[in-house]
Amino acid sequence: MRRDITLAKPALFLVSLWLMVLIAITALHASDASEEMNWSQLRNPFLEYPDRSIKDFAAIRRNRVYHLYFSSLHESRGEVRCHVMETTTRDFLSFTPLRMIDDGADEGWMGMASPDISESEGLYYLTYNSWGDIPGKSNQLFYRVSSDLETWSERKPLAANLTRGARAIDAAIARHNGRVILIWKAHVNQPRMAWSNSIDGNYKPIGSGYPTFLMADGGQNGRIHENYQFIKAGGKWRMLATGYTPHEPFIYELEGDGDSPSDWLRWVNGRRVEIPRDEFNSHDTSNASAILDNTSVDGFYHLIFAGNSEIESYLGRGWNRAAIARSRDLVDWETADSK
Questions:
Q1: What is the number of H-type helices and E-type strands within the chain?
Q2: Which among 7, 56, 60, 120 could bridge 114 via Cys, Cβ 3.0 to 4.6 Å?
Q3: Where does residue 162 rank: exposed (0-12), middle (13-18), buried (19+ CB within 10 A)?
Q4: d(Cα 323, Cα 285) in Å, to the nearest integer?
Q5: What letter would DSSP give residue 15?
Q6: Beta bridge mates, 302
Q7: What is the edge-to-edge ordering of all strands in the sheet holding 99-102?
Q8: Over residues 75-88, mean pLDDT
Q9: Cα separation of 174 and 76, whole Å?
Q10: What is the reported pTM?
């Protein structure tokens, strides 16, 4: 009998230890889950500032933290200017203090705007452009690189061999088969596309350099496109772009597989993302948006967009605030409830 009791003690200890580990893991997972986005708690607009207008969003997730980048129009150096800013969040309910990424003051630019974020092989690339249309100093494209989204490289010119001396804004890049694919809005109010073997190399126009955007019926929607973003979803490249006027998001599919540079000039099956009008977005319902691929976390793509109810303030851009919608398939969208 004593032998049985003696043998049972180690077994009981191991069971107790296993239970304690299980409880600790469960508590850790519960803690992690509580820090994630809870859709039922979100209210639009989810982010606003009383002293600035925010638009041109970019978003990415790293180590359970969401990094949001945007153009911020606010008083700076005695007048309203635009800077590229960042805030972070774990749950889209509370946010870190704003951090300025770039204002362009060191090189005499009026400001910086229109960020886009992408990741490749453990490095993050933030592209954006100068802002302000200074006479004799056309807006140009730039990028920075980071390994952790905390420390960024110095500002570097992007595709200057093609854009130098001509207005260029709204850059976005994709990487495919060792090539960097670049799209931007040129001075002729049309998108241009080019490619390079490296982000800091010389760029070559893809064919004519002018992509076409076709709707699901095969026709064009007749709008000017800007604020681009490449998304890889369902094994296919997609393009998010703002079409105006009015300013609304459209999503297109690359017709080819992208292996040939010429594939990147033809975008098809375009769909307008339908966002309902509310008090905060009664004028521009869904301007300058970005898609956050959160499918590995909650199964959804999230559209972060700017809404305003007037376009008199902030140099005619209006007081823009950030709102959010989600979709499982990039076709059917659900917006968060309003405040």
A1: 4, 23
A2: 56
A3: buried
A4: 10
A5: H
A6: 292, 326
A7: 53-62, 65-76, 79-89, 99-102
A8: 97
A9: 33
A10: 0.90
pLDDT for 16: 57
Q: Which of 314, 288, 328, 231 is nearest to 68 (CA)?
A: 288
Tell me what pLDDT residue 31 has.
Answer: 40
Asked if 288 contacts 273 with a C-beta cutoff of 8 angstroms, the reply is: no
Yes or no: say if 286 and 250 are a contact pair by the CB < 8 Å rule: no
And the tokens for 273?
A: 């993302």
| Helix H or strand E encompassing 244 | strand 236-244
Which H helix or E strand runs over 296?
helix 295-298
**Beta bridge partner(s), residue 65:** 62
Burial annotation 177-198 (CB, 10 A radius, 16+ → b, else e)? eebbbbbbbbeeeebbbbbbee
CA atoms within 13 A on the CB side of 143: 23
**CA angle, 170 then 176 then 182, to 5°:** 20
Q: DSSP assignment, residue 208?
A: T
Give yes or no for a contact between 191 and 184, defined as CB atoms under 8 angstroms apart.
yes
User: String of b and e for 64-79 (b: at least 16 CB within 10 Å)?
Assistant: eebbbbbbbbbebeee
